[in-house]
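Quick log. Single chain, no ligands specified.
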Amino acid sequence: RQQIARQCSYLYAPLAHRMGLYKIKTELEDLSLKYTNRDIYSEIARKLNETKRSRDQYIDGFIGPLEDKLALMGYPFSIKGRTKSIHSIYNKIRKQNTSFENIYDLFAIRIIFDVPKEKEKAACWQAYSVVADMYQPNPKRLRDWLSIPKSNGYESLHTTVLGPQGKWVEVQIRTTRMD
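-> predicted structure:
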């Protein structure tokens, strides 16, 4: 199990990422951590489970007013809320040399517009403007992969904003095609 878990972490998860299979990548990373470092995996999973109800309520409260403002733009869209994966949280704890409680962007939402290709950038930047008007953005955390997509073709607009109760929320803005 240890050997397979390490193979998944170092070979198959990066390959899945490169191929755009992000759900598979995340699952492989989480399962790999579960078998290579069960104590850390279990502790993070326990802390996530303890706070699940309050996190879900927080995301719903964050999304509600945002949906009302985005609807005024006139484009069809959907918003998905999520919590970072266990592996992603573990990496942040390790890289920032901090604790679970100090990870500031456990929350993330994805705004996905269904617009024609020629309106994609305008819709995304307009949505960014709406988000930035409602919540204070962190200027160091703006990532523009609309103007210059990543080498693997990834296109999206990412920002981190200060939501209610002083909690950081990552906001990803993209279109159905980009997603």
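The chain has a mean pLDDT of 91.
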